[in-house]
């Protein structure tokens, strides 16, 4: 046990040596963010300067200030308590603080001394979470919530918020009064540990002291708008000023525009050769702290704080002292140059040059109009929620408040306006002089699109109609061919076949009479010939009337031929799958096969015929004749082989007189782009080769 206690003491001593206790607020305040996360030990003696709640307090010693956080909360601490704090460091939102484990109140003293500060000290966080002393001019005082107040304090040209933990009813008259305030420096912090904006925290109104009381607004002299913020003014420019003018426009957001009725002060220096000029700015923009109850044309007296906003001085945090109804104001007619040179800033103007409306679109406050006048682009703002009923391309007469949006500094130390825009009081300030021409760019695009669609639809309809006409022509051609085939079949049946039948009957009758042997032989031979011619005529008529042969595939057509074989003749089939080929090609190949079978039956007297059909990348050299088209990548081969008596191929090149079968086969082959060749040898049968490149 003794050994364990000794080891623990050594460990604590080593830890203390590695992390010495922080005893000054400046040491805690300046810790890097990463070091503050290490929960370094703190033993600090300091004085409480502000109590936020039971869980947070702000303390200062002779070096700086920091913040304390308690768990559980302490409600017995007061400003001025001198305390001894023990705990560990924590990161905080902006700068490191102390997570308190033990706090002891040593005594009660005066609050820590406040450090005199200006706005830049507060904006940079130099005295953040410390008591500071600031001076400024009271601008506005409004309730923050049920028991707190928000005082806006002007410190030079900047305004800072002062949040007071007391209701505004108990405060003295602070507006336009010189104030000296003792407060805690604080501010809004973002997630990146950055100070977004500073503000001050005050516990009670006793920390707000008046160093100069405010003047009664009605006692202020009425001054000219042109004298505001000028060098050498009798009164300090930060105090309220009183002006009198005619209300040009009043908007719901608190903006009011007045045309000054007080004569401007005489110029300090007048040159003899100087030409007379209009007042620099006879109008002014006023920002009221409440919703205005003024109407255009009212003669009003207003008091407010002069500030430089944009190109000309304006009044901020203003109040209406009096108003008197009068006639509506008249707009000053100005040229584009006068509109843009700043001489009519905040004044009610009417452009002498019409403007053409190019576009308008919605904004968070209403609508923005884009116009062009004399080659110059103009922006106009309409503070209404409903879209303006204006046609693009219309020529308009514009009336509104001239707003100089920005300014640039010339090399001669003179500030010149950069651009100006119009603030419209209502849609009545846009007077349409002429509507847009019917054929504007948008309508031309729509018309071209419709015309293009119509042309495209016409082309589609023409294409469909052409296909329909093609199908109709094909059907008509097919029907005409069928009708012609039927007519030829009827003619054969009614003429040639009937005559052959009659001739056959006469020959039959003649053979029954006693004749010489030679004559009888001649008659029987003639009768046999007539019977064969009659059979071929019937087959021809059957082919002409059989339309299914022209509607089937080539393998089906060859199978049909095999079923028509005469008795005693065996027709075998060797058919392989082939790609689909056009019907005309199928017809010619079928007729070639039929003619080859007919020739074999007539002349070769075979007992067996084989029909072969196949498709291959190329013809085998060992089993096919040497054909020029064998170079084609894919070939269709039709082969008709019989075991008849054969013939001499060299004698059949051009055909024998009176025989047209081979000539017909060659003609049909040429029509479909095929090659045909006969392989035959006397007594060993005949093979007809038909080779068709599938590419054709």
Secondary structure topology:
Elements: H1 2-18, H2 25-29, H3 33-36, E1 41-53, E2 56-60, E3 65-69, E4 81-90, E5 97-108, E6 115-116, H4 119-123, E7 131-143, E8 149-155, E9 158-164, E10 178-189, E11 195-202, E12 208-212, E13 241-250, E14 255-260, E15 283-288, E16 299-309, E17 312-324, E18 332-334, H5 336-340, E19 348-351, E20 355-363, E21 366-373, E22 376-382, E23 395-409, E24 415-424, E25 430-434, H6 441-511, H7 517-545, H8 548-551, H9 554-563, E26 570-575, H10 583-604, E27 608-616, E28 635-642, H11 661-672, E29 675-680, E30 686-693
Helix pairs in contact: 6-7, 9-10, 10-11
Structure overview:
The protein is an alpha+beta fold and 696 residues long. Helices cover 26% and strands 35% of the residues. It contains 11 helices and 30 strands. The strands form 5 sheets. The chain has a 5-stranded mixed β-barrel with strand order 1-2-3-5-4. A 5-stranded mixed barrel has the order 7-8-9-11-10. Helix 9 (554-563) packs parallel to helix 10 (583-604) and helix 10 packs antiparallel against helix 11. It starts with a helix and ends with a strand.
Keywords:
about 35% strand, disordered N terminus, about 25% helix, alpha+beta, about 700 residues, 5-stranded mixed barrel, 5-stranded mixed β-barrel, 11 helices, elongated
Q: What distance lies between the first and last C-alpha atoms, to the nearest angstrom? A: 108 Å
Helical fraction:
25-40%
Based on helices, strands and strand pairing, what is the structural class? alpha+beta
Q: On the 0-100 scale, what is the average pLDDT?
A: 84
Strands of the biggest beta sheet: in what spatial order?
A: 1-2-3-5-4
Largest sheet: 5 strands, mixed, barrel
Q: Write down the Rg.
A: 57 Å
